[in-house]
Amino acid sequence: MAVIIIVVLTRPGGGTSEVFAEPAASTGQDPVTKSSANESSPTPSATPRKPSGGGNSEFSGAAPGLYGGTEKSASCDVEKQITYLTEAPAKNRAFAGVLGKQPGDVPSYLRSLTPVQLTYDTRVTNHGFKDGKATTFQSVLQAGTAVMVDSYGVPRVRCKCGNPLTPPTALKGEVKTVGTKWPGYQSSNAVVVKPSKSKIKEFTLRDPKTGKWFKRPEGTTGGEDRPTAPPAETPSGPTSSQPPPGQSPGETSPGSTEQPTGGTGTAPTETGGTGSPDGGTDTSPTDGTTTGGDTSPDGGTTGENTGTTTGETNGTTTGENTTGNTTGENTGTTTGETTTGETTTGGQSAQGGAPGGGSPPST
Asked: What is the radius of gyration, based on Cα positions, of the chain?
């Protein structure tokens, strides 16, 4: 038995996989063009619902809250991106080849995409341009990154650098994170986007600055946006699991054990990836429940006094307040004395997600 263990642990072939951490505001690795991003700045990444077997979480491109942005404003200038590529034929050919298009079809293809911002740190296969040809590498794009997504919700262009994107491939062996990490970076929390089962008519987006929700029709750039009610479920679970509006990215992902900024490091082993018509395959499990959670955007609601003589309260798990006389019989009149309960920031149940299919998360 000892000999077998030694052979298994020392045999070659495990290898090391590299993943480039690319902050939202950075140009990134091997840029194809100049930036066409109107808005690509870091935003807090909610903690996604996690599969029970480990690896990166997978969600349909139609999942409400998977993407965000600013209502009536496009995160990317589509026409500027078209101009950059048409003025550089070699780059245009490489760009088209990665996405399985003809060079002459690139303008119409780009106009069919929808500009949004990532709401979660997201795993992709990134394709740059170097020495006259396309390059390929695995990336984690920071929440807040401006991208263009196709009609199935899959990221296809990183606007800060003009790089075409395809679904990620499975990582093998030890995973090494290179590039520039951001505060709260955890490679295991990066999500993988799967194509929705049918074309998406409207994307349900959240503005990370205001917390407001809105709909953006597929293939539009903000002019047809309209407000909408918060969805029942997001990739993190209930809508209340989303980060509070305007929260600093440095306040997310408490308890990270990875380097907060810069340099290289070893990230937890992943098996992320996804199947798609033009992408690699994924070995990540697709079911499970979340661990941990986030406080609701408004910090929770105060508990309601039940009127009993014990002062016991009913309310959410994030802040129980009791008002009234708690030491004797309830006279029905409050004394103005307030007891503020402790705030719980973890353990919130999260359901939903469509990790294995194309439908938005459901309860």
From this structure: 23
In angstroms, what CA-CA distances link 251 with 43, 177, 179, 188, 297?
10, 21, 21, 18, 14
pLDDT for 310 equals 37
Work out the end-to-end distance of the chain between its first and last CA atoms, rounded to an integer number of angstroms. Answer: 47
Q: Of 322, 8, 30, 337, nearest to 163 (Cα)?
A: 30
Dihedral of the CA atoms 38, 42, 43, 47 (nearest 10)?
Answer: 130
DSSP alpha helices (H): ranges in the chain? 2-10, 78-86, 89-98, 106-111
Q: What residues have CB less than 8 Å from 243, skipping those under 6 apart?
A: 43, 44, 45, 46, 208, 252, 294, 297
- C-alpha separations of 339 from 107, 310, 336 in Å: 62, 13, 10
Question: What burial class does residue 262 get, using C-beta atoms within 10 Å of its C-beta: 0-12 exposed, 13-18 middle, 19+ buried?
Answer: exposed
Rounded CA separation 254/231 (Å):
25
> pLDDT tens across 312-322, in order?
334 333 333 33
As a whole number of angstroms, the distance between CA 67 and CA 202 comes to 12
Q: pLDDT tens, 180-227?
A: 999 999 988 999 999 999 999 999 999 999 999 999 999 999 999 999
Q: Are the C-beta atoms of residues 52 and 285 closer than 8 Å to each other?
A: yes
Spatial contact of 202 and 215, defined as CB atoms under 8 Å apart: yes
User: What is the rounded distance in angstroms from the CA atom of residue 94 to the CA atom of residue 279?
Assistant: 17
Q: Say which range, 108-112, 178-182, 199-203, 263-267, has the weakest mean pLDDT.
A: 263-267
Q: What is the pLDDT of residues 9-22, one digit of tens each?
A: 444 455 788 999 99
- pTM here is 0.67
- pLDDT tens digit sequence for 16-70: 889 999 999 999 999 999 999 999 999 998 899 998 877 889 999 999 999 999 9
What is the rounded CA–CA span in Å between residue 49 and residue 60? 13
CA distances to 136, 141, 284 from 64, in Å: 29, 19, 22
Question: Which residue shows structure tokens 């490091």?
Answer: 265
